[in-house]
Amino acid sequence: MTEVLARLSSRAIAGGLGVFLLIACSSGGGNAPTASSTDVTVWSAWGGNELKAYQDVLKPFESSTGIKVHLTTVRDANQLAINVDAGTSLPDIAPGPSVDKVKAWVDKGTLKSVETALGDKFGDYIANTYPALTTTSGSSDNLYIGIVGGKHYELMVKTQVKGLFWYNKKVFTGTAPKTFDEMLAISPSQYGAQKLFCAGLESGGASGWPASDQIDNIIMRQSGDKLYTDWIQGKVKFTDPAIKLGYQTYLKEVSAANVYGGPNTVLSTAFQRAGKPLFAAQPGCLFLEQATFIPSFFKEDYPNLVAGTDFDFFGHPSVNPQYDGNVNGFYDNFAMYNDTPAARKLMQYMATKDAQQIWANDGGTLAAIKSINYTDPVYKRAAEVAGTAKNLLVTAGDFMPTDMQAAFWKSLLNVTRNPSSLDSELSRLDQVQKASYTTS
User: Fold this and answer.
1) pLDDT, tens digit, 9 for 90 and up, residues 42-65
2) pTM, whole model, 2 decimals?
3) Do residues 150 and 284 share a domain?
């Protein structure tokens, strides 16, 4: 899951999207000038299987409409902003900007509304798409999903869910715990496993991001979506009791008593390999917390594993019942930058069940539409999690200023190594927060 161009998600970091790359990818190749009804230019951040899936999505559109899609992979998250600032040409369609630029680009007319793009099909889009991706809560703005003044500026096409607890079905044969405390009370030895959890935080220069996913899932369910969002925006200090409680709860997952191999193993294990002990002859752990993309790594290590037969997941257990509707995830979107007949037609097509079913059939993702059919049992159940979400909340570190993100991830590595350093780490983070949000 590389996330969309503007949003550097945990999985995007894992895929190495920090590198600039421009590649002509469509069947036509090259870039074409923006055309009214026969050509449409599109930028995306996708490569590999994700790019192939999008090309599969585009084939029926090009065949049925005669419109030529000039698709370019752009892996520099700043390229759109560079073009906007310079006043140079923009693609007709590309992912929406980083959250800090959404309102400014709407105000200057850079972004065209989804209402404009979809026309009389907009009502169908709202009715068919997961509500957490299209609705605001008590406000006319939600910049995280591209809503400004009640209008939508980002068309949601795919999503993923985080905070899922994966297990080996032949080892853990019990009932999924309903609460976080119930999960902590499970005895792994009862099922022949060494420890309750596995974890791996190593990811090169981005080491620590898996822990940020874990603590984010705790804080949003423990203290609510408002505090969580305010924290992302720098309005809540790291020394706030709610954030400290989130760290303390996270530390229970990676304590020497609960995690396979102890903290040192957690720190040195690549996130891709963190699930291997689930399937060892003598299981190292019962559970691994990770997002919907992790089965691909299970199968790298154990190619014969079958989803739903050999492994499964349960959703993040309740931490505070009043916030159970908060789900951590990420999403891919497209925005319209040039209002042309061809661009409108492509936006309308991408909002259809037919288009998004192709994405789902190619695997590795959830669609944004609620009624998609999934043959993969993992994604079928993940769709149920997304469908019951009241709020699909972004990953905190991905939307913090760069210096804050780096300090946040590092703090999680440090407290995993030395839990007694928690207070000093939180105080240091307050200082970074004050500086980074002042200058960002």
Assistant:
1) 999 898 889 999 999 999 999 999
2) 0.82
3) no
